[in-house]
Amino acid sequence: MVATPSNSPSSRRFDGVRMRKQHGLSLVELMVAMALGLVISLAVLQVFISNKNTFLLQGAAGHLQENGRFALQYLAAELRPAGVGVGTRLDEEDICVVASNGTAAEWNSMNRPIWGKRNAAAGGLGAVGTDELSIFANDGCESFLTAGEILKPAQNANLKVTTYCPSMQKDHAVMVMDMEKAVVVRITNKPNSSGSGQVTLAHAAGNNDKNAKCGGFKFSDIQFTSPARVVGFAHKTFYVADTGRTSVAGQPVRALFVRDTAQVPVQTNEIIEGVESLRTSFGVASGNSVGVQTYLSPAEVEAANRWSDVRTVKIDLLLVSEERVSGARDQAVQFGGATVAADGRLRQVFSTVVALRNRID
User: Is 207 inside any structural domain?
Assistant: First the structure.
């Protein structure tokens, strides 16, 4: 066998082929690979960003849905009993508020089961451009004042009533009324809740408002015509206002509030945040009919003095997310007859109609 010399032409050709196989990628091939990798990376990144934005948008929408449903359910439950148990309709001047630390101006409309107003300027409970909605209803408990009881401005009152009612709690207000007048006093003791025998409601003279305006009667030795009822009541105002907090986006946070004037002193509580505005309209009937004929704004009902004809209430709530989300960047929402300017936060309108039970039945 004859060995082929290492420097022979065939050996050199073999070594050249072997060397070319070991050269690796060329510059063009490397650039093509990098470009393909970059395209794939951008596609994956785009999918990730899209999924993240979708997740944030769905999270914000779900939060709005939860808050919106809760707010509507809460308002509906509070509004339905408006006016329940109010057996006597008294003129405003015949209601005397003698409980100090109360707000007489807010009690002047107790003869209205429901009423509202729009805040056209600063100074109201709610934010400018939003509505306030108030209700009045007594507890429906049949309790009566015993004969001969007298209220005097400078003397402690120990009102004897026939029945204990759940609303007869310390620091709550109760109304004593006959067919001609009504007096609102503050309970300063803890009444007996056993339900047997007479129940005493103490009202300390130090809690009397000596400057109380009692309209057609003087706050002096007030006597009541039998049978005089003693009722606890709910007198609440719902409104939207700033909370004093700011969101992560740096925007003021608004919330739905309730102001309970049956508590003495008045209690205000935040119900749910993220409610940007509240608008109301009132379904009114003609005369003694039950069916709603038209819906009017609070100002229109007030101008026509038709609060007693209100049968239903339409509530519109505008809710807004706390954070900015990309899907809401150019969102245009119609609310209250106007377009709400987009600011990157998600908004949604929630609406419902509430029938007043005492007006429909």
Answer: yes
Nearest to 71 by CA among 359, 295, 354: 354
Sign of the alpha-carbon dihedral angle for 221, 100, 237, 295: positive
Q: Which residue has the tokens 């990798």?
A: 37
Residue 230 falls within a domain, yes or no? yes
Identify the H or E element spanning 202: strand 199-203
Rounded Cα distance between 231 and 299, Å, is 30
Pairwise CA distance, residues 53 & 208, whole Å? 60
Indicate the number of domains in the chain: 1
The sheet with strand 275-284 has its strands ordered as 294-296, 275-284, 310-324, 345-355
**More confident site: 264 or 305:** 305
Answer yes or no: are the C-beta atoms of 291 and 285 closer than 8 Å: yes
Mean pLDDT of all residues in the chain?
79
Bridge partner list, 316: 279, 351
- Is residue 41 one of the residues assigned to a domain? no
| Cβ–Cβ < 8 Å for 219, 203 | no
Q: Is 32 inside a domain boundary?
A: no
HSE-CB for 54 with a 13 A CA cutoff? 6
Length of the chain: 361
Parent domain of 153: 58-360
Q: What confidence tier does 240 reach under pLDDT thresholds 50, 70, 90?
A: very high
